[in-house]
Structures are given as C-alpha cells and as structure tokens.
Design a protein that fits this description.
Helices cover about 40% and strands about 30% of the residues. It has about 400 residues and is an alpha/beta fold. Bound molecules: P-hydroxybenzoic acid. P-hydroxybenzoic acid binds next to strand 16. P-hydroxybenzoic acid binds near residues 57, 209, 230, 304 and 306.
Length: about 400
C-alpha cells in the first residue's frame, strides 16, 4: 500500500489525468469523453480565475473542427465571426491579405475566454471530474506503465492512478519540469518589448483586424464582437499598465494606425488593461514515458498572429488521436509519434509568429538598414500574391 493511502489519502483511478483546466486540458478531456475515454482534470486556480484570463481571439480552422468534434461548437458558430482576410498597415499605407482567396479558408473571431466557458459548460453537463484549487501536484513514475499524480486540496493528500498524464498546465506548470534535465532541451528567444492591451465596450474601428507597423511601434486593432474591441500597442518592458491612462493609450494607438482609421476610432473607458511580454520558447521532447506535454507547457509564441491557443489545439489533436489509437485499436503508434508530429507543426507556428513579429515591431537596436528591410518586406507582401498566399496559409493554420 502506498504511503498516501496508509495516511488515509483520497485516491482515484482514471485513464488520463489531465494537469491544467485551461482550454487545452478541457478540450482534451471533452474529446476523450466523446470517445468514452475517462479523464480527471486538475486545476491550480479557481474556475473564475481561469475565465478571467483574457487571451487572443482568433481561431484556426483546425481548432474549429476540434470544437465541432468535441460537440461544443454551437455558440461559437452562432456568435463567432468568420474573417476572410486581414489588413496590414505601415504609416498611412494599408493593404489586405485575403485568406479565402488564397487558401479557401477563413478564421473565426471568438474569444479564448468564450471557448473556455463553452468547454466548462460541456464538461459540467457531462458530469466530468474537474478538481480546482489543487496544490503540490507531483507527477510520479511517468517513465513506468503505472504513473500516478499526487496533490493536495485544502491540505488533504490525494492520488490519481492513471494510464497516461497530459501536461496542459502552461509555462509555469509542473509538467515540463517533470521531464529530467538530461532529457529536456529548451530553445528560447525573448523580445525586448511587450504588448499593452485594452478591452473596451466600443465598436471595432474596422470590420477586419489591422496589424500596424509604425515609426512609433506596433499596434493591433482586434475585436470580440460588434461592441467589444481589443486593441494593443507595443510598449516598453519597464512600463506598467498604471503608467497608461485610457486617454494616453487611445492617443498613442491613433498615432500608430493610418489617419483615416484613427479618425473613425471610437474610444471609451477600458474594462481591462494589461501588459504581456513576448517570448518564443520550445521544449523538446514533448513526451517522456507516459507524460505528454500540450500547449504552453511545451511552447510559447509571441501573440502576433494569435498562434498560442491554436498551436495548443494541434497538440491536443495529435494526443487525442494517439490515445484513441491506444484504447480503440490497441496500438501505440499514435502516442509513439506524438512528440515528433506535434513538434514539426509547433516549429512552423514558431517560425510564423517570429516572422510576423519581426515584420511589425520596432526593435530598440534596429538600424536604419533593418528598417528599410522591414519596409521592403512589407512592400513585397503588398505586391506579391505568392507572398500573401504564404502568409495566409500560415495565418489560417497549417494542416494537421
Ligand atoms: C486578440 O484579439 O486578442 C488578438 C488577435 C490577433 C492577434 C493577437 C491577439 O494576432
């Protein structure tokens, strides 16, 4: 008998223990449920905390398909907005990249918070096990055939025995560090600026997103719906949201987007204001024994291009199919190729996010030569259908 059980610890058994109750953990849990595979989700925070996190709001077609397969797409189909293209500006110049023309696909504007809300609702309706406020999570014996997860809830020790562990617990979670140092390799690039973002109950300045390169730095005009806008400006890493009054934010945004857009911008009080640093990060491998990393636990992208949740979704797709293969066909082929397949796609999303960030931001050490190259690249993208097609293919999401 294990030490926890001798101590009277509460113990459970499931097929897949999922660490992290954000969108990727919940999506995996819901997909497995549809196929009759049992899971338990452990979340460090409360549900309200998870739903309070504001993240990007553009979903790739692969993510839409997964939401449909998980049976959680109804509200998204009703309330989300399909976008067939996006605008890119530099100074007062602006051009459009048409996704549908170049790829036959659109993207869906629907907030990550709403995706998470829909997934919680579905898990709760199905009686899915989600434990909140868990502490001291340890993934044990991941390199054996009998892994188990130990943790505490309000001081009480608990244990889950399982076949597999999915580490969906983000960059600061315990899963990644469970992989021993001599197995794990990490690759990182930190960008010398952040994004100051606000949410405001105002109509979006334009029906499609505008990615703006300006002499004063990057800006992005995005949205959630007809009366909820999301705007960002590149800021210094030493800034704090309190340094920026709403008026200062709006004035700076107006200076960074084309004049005709600035003239029609409707401003209002911010209902959320925060700063996010920008980072590219990948850990390899994404599997160790019976532990599989998904999403931010294994990789981070800068937000330019909204690849964070979408890349987590492609991990979930590979893992879900690998687990199905295991339980339905008694085959380990899918889980054995998980890390290699997931990473092949992750690196392409890393490349795109890095490229799109490099194209649009002002770097503190940027020379006039670097700036001329940036403008040449923007003009090439504006003029070349081939360049637009490559951009559109990446933006709508590479095939799984
Ligand atoms: C957002 O709406 O928050 C958003 C949209 C597109 C991006 C990044 C963030 O590239």
């Amino acid at each position: 008998m294990c030490i926890l059980c001798r101590m009277g610890a509460h113990s459970m058994k499931t097929q897949v223990a999922i660490i992290g109750g954000g969108p990727s953990g919940l999506l995996l849990s819901q997909l497995l449920h549809v196929r009759g595979i049992d899971s338990v989700v452990l979340e460090r925070k409360t549900k309200d905390y998870v739903l309070g996190r504001i993240r990007a709001g553009v979903l790739e077609r692969g993510m839409l398909d997964l939401m449909r397969e998980a049976g959680v797409a109804d509200r998204m189909e009703k309330e989300g907005h399909a976008h067939d293209g996006t605008l890119i500006s530099y100074g007062d110049e602006m051009f459009r990249v048409d996704f549908t023309e170049h790829t036959g696909h659109a993207v869906m504007v629907y907030g990550q918070t709403e995706v998470t809300r829909d997934l919680y609702e579905a898990r709760e309706a199905a009686g899915g096990a989600i434990e909140f406020n868990v502490e001291d999570v340890v993934i044990n014996d991941a390199d054996s055939d009998a892994p188990f997860v130990s943790y505490t809830v309000v001081g009480q020790a608990r244990r889950i025995d399982c076949d597999f562990v999915a580490g969906c617990d983000g960059f600061h979670g315990v899963s990644r560090n469970t992989i021993p140092d001599d197995v794990r390799r990490e690759y990182e690039k930190v960008y010398p600026f952040g994004w100051l973002g606000i949410l405001s109950e105002t109509p979006p300045v334009n029906p499609e997103l505008i990615y703006a390169n300006s002499d004063r730095g990057f800006a992005l005009c995005s949205m959630r719906n007809e009366n909820l806008s999301r705007y960002y400006i590149q800021c210094s890493l030493s800034d704090s949201p309190n340094d920026w009054s709403d008026t200062a934010f709006w004035n700076e945004l107006k200076r960074r987007i084309p004049t005709d857009q600035a003239d029609k911008l409707v401003t209002g009080p911010s209902i959320e204001k925060s700063i996010a640093p920008l980072r590219s990060f990948v850990t390899e491998p994404m599997r160790w024994g019976r532990l599989f990393l998904c999403g931010d636990a294994a990789h981070i992208v800068p937000p330019t291009g909204a690849k964070g949740l979408n890349t987590a979704a492609s991990d979930v797709h590979y893992l879900y199919n690998g687990l199905r293969d295991f339980y339905e066909n008694n085959s380990t082929a899918g889980i054995d190729s998980y890390s290699q397949k997931a990473l092949a796609r992750v690196w392409k999303a890393e490349r795109f996010s890095w490229w799109f960030s490099s194209l649009l931001h002002r770097y503190p050490d940027q020379t006039t030569f670097d700036h001329r190259i940036q403008v040449a690249e923007l003009e090439f993208l504006r003029a070349s259908k081939a360049a637009q097609k490559a951009m559109a293919e990446n933006y709508v999401g590479l095939p799984y």
